[in-house]
Amino acid sequence: MAERYDAIVVGGGHNGLTSAAYLAKAGLKVIVLERRSVLGGATLTESPVPGYKFSVASYLVSLLRPQVIRELDLAKHGLQMAPSVGTYTPHWDGYLDRRTDHADTIREIRKWSHRDADNYDDFKQTVTDITRFIRPAVDMPAPDPYGDPKEWLEYAGLAKEFGHLPLRTKGALLDLITGSAYDFLRRWFEGEPLIGTMSASGIIGTFLGIKSPGTGMVFLHHYFGEIDGSFREWALPQGGTGAVAAAIASAAQSFGAITRTDAPVKQVLLRGDKAIGVVLESGEEVYGDTIVSAADAKHTFIDMLPAGSLPTDFETAIRNFKFRGSSAKVNFALDGLPTFTAAPPGNGHLLGTVSISPSPNYMERAYDDAKHGHPSKRPFLDMLIPTMTDPTMAPPGKHVATAFVQYAPHKLAPEHGGWDNIKEQFGDLVVDTISEFAPDFRDKIVGRQIMTPLDLERTIGLTEGNIFQGEILVQQMAFNRPVSGWSRYKTPIRDYWLASSSAHPGGGIMGAPGRLAALEILKSKRGEA
Amino acid sequence: MAPKKSVPKAAPKTLKASTKAELPPKVQKVPRAAKPAATADVVVIGGGHNGLVAAAYLARAGIKTILVEARTELGGMALTGDVDGVRAPMLSHTVGRFRPRVARDLGLQGKVKLVEPEARNFAPHPTNGTAITLWRDAKRTAAELATRPNGERVAAGYLKLDGRMRRVGAYFEKVLDGIPPDLDGGKSVAELLAGFAFRAPFSGLEEGDGREILRMLPMSASDLVNEYINDEHLEALISWRGSRYNASGPISPGTGATLLFDSITGDGADGGASGETVVAIGGPGALISAIADAARGFGAEIRTGAQVTAITERDGRVTGVALASGEEIIAPYVLSTLDPKSTLLNLLGVEATGPELRRRLRATRNTGVTAKLNILLDQLPVFPSAGSAAEQEVRLRGRITILSDTLGIERAFDSSKYGEMSDVPVVEAMIPTLIDPSLTNDKRHLLSAVVQYAPVDLKGGWTADARKTLADRAVAVLESVAPGISSHIVARQLITPADLQSDWGATGGHAMHVNEGFDQFAQWRPLYGIGRYETPIDGLFLSGAGTHPGGGVTGAPGANAAEKLIRHLRRAAE
Fold first, then answer.
1. CA–CA gap between residue B470 and residue B464 (Å, rounded)
2. pTM for this entry
3. How far does the CA of residue B332 sit from the closest CA of chain A (Å)?
4. Is the ipTM of this complex over 0.90?
5. How far apart are the C-alpha atoms of A394 and A240, rounded to whole Å?
6. Does B538 touch chain A (CB under 8 A)?
7. What kind of fold does domain A4-43+63-80+240-322+464-525 have according to CATH?
């Protein structure tokens, strides 16, 4: 007879591990069941090219909640993060190289537009004010408009604060929640590479263009980023993003949680309307009081539950939940650094992100292709060379480059014959795109790994390859994530909880859904919720 | 938000303007007046339907009102004009959604004849020979849809969507007549919960519909419709109404809000999934005349050919308007129905508006992409997919929308983003002479067509060649569903967004003044901070399509802004 646990966590990605750690820390007997032979989910470091380590799917950490780092003592468990310094944007007529030094940044921006340089501080202040105001919401469960008024009381402070915000902050916040990233930036800026690159924060992982309303929300989502209290700072974990998952796993284990890999869950076991355990693909059954799913909403509710176990309205809502993956990941093993044609002297511009986003129209046209079912002819790329700060990722003197590529629509037009058919061609396109600005890039490549949206779906288990386990759309956020009335991690199945990025506050390496779900579960066990 | 249902009957006898306002405006800002300046309590700028409605409400409340219209004719974009000697709707060809309560308040019933055809929307497919008709009666629509491939499911989905839109539309019917709630109003926790949680305005709605509204507003029209309907032609046809007149496509988020606003139901409005189609006999100008008569009847003074060159102000307080003639009108209050950029950027200086507001307002989306093509035909064109001649007479009385699928509309939209006109524009036509033969009084027919997308900032400019190209492309679209129509064209008249800018004064040539969608909506239409009709300039009120609840011949922005101003005047008089 199988062993019994207080909590079974399905999925060993960073959110599942975070949930497990919090539950185990509270004294629960917890097991994490991971389908693959490695932990981490999309927070993963692997070596498909021997000697070179790639952050396979994700690449930067900007959103990891400081509470998670602190409460799980991740530094003690080996997590080391170096701030990612700046963004370099090559352009046909030059470049824009923004680093951490403020005066340098202003000088760089002034090369393209005096007005932009003059407005930059006002923009920064506005965005800082907005994030400061909205940030607490990331660390609280979303209140339900039709729920217990108690839930809204948690937000009363925030609502009161809204009343006191200056008009410009309020207006800008509404602009972000309802409008496009491009229109938001246009209020301050006009420079092509500046708007092109900054607007990218509005489309990452989203099947919309920079001019589509709604991308302001995605932009805002990326600006929650906070490392050591400084906003919009992105960081590179030493050892790749897999190191984040490893540290959280180590923390969970130190609290007594058991982590099992190669344990794919086939179905959740129900008794009446209550979840009582899971059955693995192998037929093995594992029983627990509480089942926590860190898989996305589709796997959690459609694939892992017996048909007909959900209320019809809820099931319809889940089927209407949009994934629409729009990005791919291409990782390169390099035997040297690429030389960009238009770049400052030295290699300092390669320390941070290399963003191929030279103009707003370049970005918008990339979306137009995708909208009609084609990979962008000239895609937006966000490339990192982690070996600039972490030489352990490659053999001595060698480098790795990891490129986030958009758009790569999950649903291709029929003429392409599916992603497997055009995968290598797509890899070549990425090489061409980088080589347009760094002609020797193609000669430095000694190996590459292409993760199409289909690969992200098959390998990592992300439905439609969506990196956020559900699009960051206004109608899929806060109290609507994943379904209105079910935004507080509970599900219509008793003792079955959702702790993945499909829940509030959404995707990215945040650990927030995992942590908030665990806290709600513990509250419920104490009889408080 | 409790929608204000009626206008206060009793008006204050005298209106006391502030001492400041009685001072003459700065001399250097205004050309010297040739004759003594006229005075009024309120100057309404713009003689379109909203300006006339506002003037009528103000005059009805006993307020001395002068309306000034730059053009020689009233009507703005709701104008009955002239095509080759024939009276024709110039721009808007329907007057559906005109608020019934406005008609009641102003006593317009019986003054203008409105006709609502049974067929609201006929959609001949441009390539495959099929057609969809959306009838006023949803059951009749469903019965016809059921004969399409996968028809039973499509028909059931349509009825479900129509039901949802009607229930939600009943909520929006109230929203339309109200001043958007003040998000700052929350002083106590109770108020915050009521206002911030959106609960109070939702009272009377079932929980399921309330939840749906919060989800639907930011959605794209195509996502919204697609949840109910799995038929690409029908999905495109319904979701199109979220982008009509706007620089967006059915996939653009926020077009769900526009679609829902266009589907209001209740108090005489009857939108639903098909949307309303209401035609004024005599063209939209007949409605304009009726409102103008009502305004004059209440005592408003209406001047045409009177172009405002500046709104005068002193120390942040409105003092009146200056006209192109050199004349000035002294008034402590100005209500402008021009587009917000014209009002705040062009008619006022930076010292009055301040750099912050100007910076934000400049970024407001108002790129016009909609042209209007008016065609005079020597006979009724034949649409084979509409069936027999008798059947055609019935089906063609509503809007005739020519599009194929969502991505097709998106493709047409894509080119406009880069300053190009669509190869295959979306065309929404009306044949007003089928309903109102008095327009031509003979066998000739008028075809009035909305042609989209053709951007105001067309690369190379709106040359004669460019105009011909667009008209030809629109006619080619018509030809695809009404073969032979080109040979019956007697005259054609194209009005481009550039014309809307130069001849109608709409900044950006946008028919709705500023783009519609969830990003420029309710109290953030056109911008948060000036979305409740009041502006930072004392005495200046905004109205018109650029304010809540937006464009279309509703009269609602005019009525709401006037109510707000009347309330303000009452308080000031106390």
1. 10
2. 0.93
3. 26
4. yes
5. 11
6. no
7. FAD/NAD(P)-binding domain (3.50.50)
